[in-house]
DNA sequence: CTCCAATGTTTCCACTGGAAATATAGATAC
DNA sequence: GTATCTATATTTCCAGTGGAAACATTGGAG
């Protein structure tokens, strides 16, 4: 019955690990990447700035865990709205990719910042790998690479990934400004122009 | 004849502005983006850490100037090795883009980090604009966008830029690892497979 | 020659991430 | 039940960062 004891925060948080990751994503979405300091994350949870060390070792470890969670959500975005046809899955994945980047720009940037994340971390590796697998799996059924090269499959994967990733990055860095918030992949991949738009809740600010 | 006065560094540097930018690029190429602190740059020139403020206002101002210089060199890379045909210019530009990113990975990253650069700076705007103009000018003669949409030209530009930028970024973040240092654009754009390779001095480490 | 404005330096400050010693509490052994 | 052990969290430090403010130096304009 220690619930009765007035709002006295227990010494041990209980699930600090998850709370810290959630706090990190929250800060990213509300205050941006610049505000994402170790002390800020800790304070957001109501804990001292050295507490994270027990769970993540260092700031980089914590950021890596946040990025891993980002890749999981990223994967969800790409699966959203896909029907059971190759074309539908492709559109959903490419638009989901861009939509995620527009919805969580700072988290997205963190996920692709080698200075901030440790890409050899097993958890991050797994999450990022699964995210890539979604695109790679879809690229299989495409005819983008009409050559009969032995690695035609890998070429198609890379091309698809490069297009969508580059487009997302350019928008984030403001370089594609003036083109408006073109979130519909059909706007840059002409072949898809005939397809219905499958926008979902999130929109760029 | 104050040259006779023993190696006594003059109080006024003379060309601090250029020296600081050069020092910044030097640090980026040798020690990476993490080592690029205001104090490190100043020390590299042999000057106090507050001296840059007179010329650039703040660290961000200095980083912006460094990025602008980066865009100028970036443009040079894209022009290198181009003969007087649309196809040749296209290959040269796309390979130059990727080759620059591989040669100056940290500088390239800085150039596309909105957290570090002020994209509303006129000098940076001009340099980045000229860099984009090279790709855009080339995209005009392409048939990538076969649709007869009114903005077909802009679509071709964006597509070309996205592919090459995304490909460069993915390699930098290590995500395209396992595919090897594929610097030849022909490896991902099948249409170009028949063209001669136009590699130049720089190679990825 | 004198003064002024531009350019650098010194000295401070708040903030950051991390190290080390300490406190607290949940779990296990007896 | 109680003692101990270990995981977890705190406190207190430290070197490093970028920036503000006051001061020093210098070249040039009047």
Characteristics of this structure?
DNA-binding; mainly alpha; disordered C terminus; Tetracycline Repressor, domain 2; Arc Repressor Mutant, subunit A; elongated; 205 residues; homodimer
Describe the structure.
2 copies of one chain form a homodimer. With 205 residues, chain A is mainly α. Chain A is built from 8 helices and no strands. The first copy, chain A, has 2 domains: 13-57, Arc Repressor Mutant, subunit A (Orthogonal Bundle); 69-192, Tetracycline Repressor, domain 2 (Orthogonal Bundle), CATH 1.10.357. Chain A has helices at 16-31, 38-45, 52-56, 59-79, 86-103, 105-111, 122-139, 152-172. In chain A, α4 (59-79) runs antiparallel to α5, α4 packs parallel to α7 (122-139) and α7 (122-139) crosses α8 (152-172). The longest helix of chain A is centred in the middle third of the chain and has 21 residues, at 59-79. The first copy, chain A, starts with 15 loop residues before the first helix and ends in a 33-residue tail after the last helix. Residues 1-7, 178-183 and 190-205 of chain A have low confidence and may be disordered. The A-B interface holds A 32-34, 109, 112-115, 119, 128, 132, 144-147, 149, 152, 154-155, 158-159, 161-170, 172-176, 179, 182, 187-190, 193 and B 32-34, 109, 112-115, 119, 128, 132, 144-147, 149, 152, 154-155, 158-159, 161-170, 172-176, 179, 182, 187-190, 193. The structure holds a DNA duplex (30 and 30 nucleotides).
